[in-house]
Amino acid sequence: MPRKLLLSLLLLVPTLALAGPLQIFVSVPPQNRFVEKIGGGHVEVRAMVRPGHDPHTYDPTPQQIAALARTDLYVRTGVPFENAWMERIRAANPKMRILDARSGIELRPLAHYDHGSGEHEHDEHPQEAALDPHIWTSPPLVKRMAANIRDALTALDPANGAEFSRNYHAFAAEMDALDWELKAQLAAVSNRKFMVFHPAWGYFADTYGLTQVAIEHEGKEPGALSLTALIEQSRREGVKVIFVQPQFSGQSAETLARAIGGRVVAIDPLAPDYADNMRRVARLIAEAAGP
Ligand code: ZN
Asked: DSSP state, 124?
């Protein structure tokens, strides 16, 4: 091969690499679906926390850290494993852009522990732990996240900005329709409180005028005193269902359900099929509230 041709082929390589889809990592599902909705065929998206794993204690695999070297954009949401790993994630590829999907969203404090007895130890990271990262459980907030994603993709790939903008509008309309549907589904629910093991549904509750009562507090099971207080509260308020997350089993959720003659039902904030999952969660919460 003539040297000149070889040289021009080598010069072509970076151009070809840029022409491929943007390589993107998100911390947890279903954010990967949101990025795919906006990016279409111009993105290749992976979630750091794999199905069945707990996003509070997750450790990225060495392969995932290595893959960051070829990543254009990392989308973070402030879930606990991410706070612990962010410096290492950043160091794996200093050229990688990082989008904080929470930008422009007013964060709520994590559920307060109003039935406790001070038997919990203080958290080591109070600022990070104090704010609720589960923003995607509210469709109007997903719309805001989608706008952040659109802007980040457009900055990386301006040539496809018009397409990202069209995709955003279609997805935003989908989220508006879902929001109306969930509002209608939950409007007539008489008992506005629902009990969960892990407080992942605070933004959902705020959006639909419900109150989430959490068993767990900052990742810890309640002590005996708190559990007794929760049992009393559940009896008083007619709670029959304790919602748990499939990624971790709360022993205290089972204990509590048995004590009140209720049952444990799994709802998953990380399910990939976002809209269908939200409809299912709304239906289960409405059913748990009773007629
Ligand atoms: Zn969580």
From this structure: S
Distance 178 CA to ligand 1 centre (A): 22
- Centre of ligand 1 from the C-alpha of residue 200, in Å: 5
Cα 183 to ligand 1 centroid, rounded to whole Å: 23
User: How far does residue 157's CA lie from ligand 1's centre (Å)?
Assistant: 32
Structure tokens at 258: 């048995």
pTM equals 0.86
Please give the distance, rounded to the nearest whole angstrom, from the Cα atom of residue 169 to the centre of ligand 1.
29
Calculate how far, in angstroms, residue 140's C-alpha sits from the geometric centre of ligand 1.
19
Q: How far is the CA of 247 from the centre of ligand 1 (A)?
A: 10
The pLDDT profile of the chain, 291 residues, written as one tens digit per residue, is 556 665 555 555 444 445 699 999 999 999 999 999 999 999 999 999 988 888 888 999 999 999 999 999 999 999 989 989 999 999 999 999 999 999 999 999 886 544 433 444 444 444 445 789 999 999 999 999 999 999 999 999 999 999 999 999 999 999 999 999 999 999 989 889 999 999 999 999 999 999 999 998 777 888 889 899 999 999 998 899 999 998 877 788 999 999 999 999 999 999 999 999 999 999 999 999 877
**Helical spans, DSSP H, in the chain:** 3-19, 31-39, 62-67, 80-92, 126-130, 139-156, 161-187, 202-207, 224-236, 251-260, 274-288
- Extract the tokens encoding 9: 């082929």
CA of 11 to the centre of ligand 1 (A): 46
